[in-house]
Amino acid sequence: MRGFSTIVFDLDGTLLDTIEDLHLTLNHALESEGLPTRTFEEARAFVGNGIRRLCERGVPEESSPAVVDAVFAEFNRWYAAHCNDHTHAYTGMVELVGALRGEGRRVAVVSNKSDYAVQDLMDIYFPGAFDAVLGVREGIARKPARDMVDAALAEMGAEAQADARAGHAVYVGDSEVDVQTAANAEMPCISVSWGFRSAEQLEEAGATHIVATSAELAQAIREGR
Prior knowledge:
Number of strands: 8
Largest sheet: 6 strands, parallel
């Protein structure tokens, strides 16, 4: 098989455009505590390190830990019911994942999103399409630590772990967190510019291979570069 035989994907901003639901849920949670809301661009800049961090960034700087806890709790309560109100898959990604799996390549998702939302959204948009699907779980350090990637490789089995050691596995993401995650996992990284960060922001974060379409991503995976 030519190219990368194991591919680990980020979720938000890479496979699915989730930003509108994240923004609306953040503002709902803030309003529930009588706090000022955030703009779309602010929310876009805040995402990438998980829901807890999104809430920490969203509240006013002087907010107490108790206020952050309350916003976080309401965010999770609301998002569990509204995570798919406006979310959609990016053009060509459902087809690409299916094609890669059909070629015998192993595919996984690792996300800093809460695991309940990751599992729900993957069941909606990519049912049965991935060999491993991981959201934030107790006892596994979130990205940019390598732990979630290692857990996904272990779940996929010895061949996936061997691919990673041999340089035949690649990480695909849309943010500086993903660039750092790939580096920490000692894997090459393909960055996508259709997500929550621009190509310029990705370059500033150290991205060395940026693609603009799912077709370009498919070519990069199949050529192993």
